[in-house]
Amino acid sequence: MKTKLVLLFALVLGMLSFTVNLKPNVMDGLQPVKSGVYKWKDHPVKKGEMRESRKILEGTGSHLQYFRIHATTQYPGAKPNPPHANEAKEECIIVKEGTMKVTIEGQSQILGPGGVILLMPKQMHSIENIGNTNLTYYVMQYQSKKNMNIERGIANGGSLMLNKDSLVFNKSERGGGIPYFDRATAMCERFEMHITQLDQKGPSHEPHAHDETEIILILSGETEMTIDGKEYTAGEGDFYLANSQLEHGIRNASNSPCSYFAFKWN
Known about the structure:
Largest sheet: 7 strands, antiparallel
Distance between the termini: 61 Å
């Protein structure tokens, strides 16, 4: 009888091990994300109850072992998802349209278009559409190849909730810009974000390269960008991605103003 029980126990353990091994690892088989342009109209839409989503990219990066961007739209009256936390991932969230109520660890703020959230790992949060129009926002979720450093994130300000209207627009010869933040986070040695406005046709600056990976998210107008010798165009809702160390430069493609988020990290 004892021998039969031991064999039965071993069989059960083997079945459990087989079941666990069948669970897919979300990071298995991921490929490096590609530089270039990502067009809003090209992202397939997945509809749910009072909401829709667009998966834009998923892969690895020069400094990231996991890198995903998607967009979510909550219709008016949509119920928010229950509060939840990311165990080992950080998020940068950008409001595209609508009125958002975001709550992080019990602290709430109302954000409009151009609002930005920098969300540390392990923090309970929820997002709700409190307006009478669609709420659409981009979510960049990422995990560093280096060890997560919660203490560094806290020392540099922790999670952020920033409304565009509360920030200062600095004029320049070409147009101007709005600085959002430039700091270390729990996942990044440096994460910098700003808005640039170009009032006339022409470049923002000379083509250049740097260690950070950079995204240019177009808010308005028509733009052109050179990345590693290749030419791309993008309008509202589209974004460019330039991987680490690739030469790149963005230009206003018309004499009407354009504006865009620029954010980079390492």
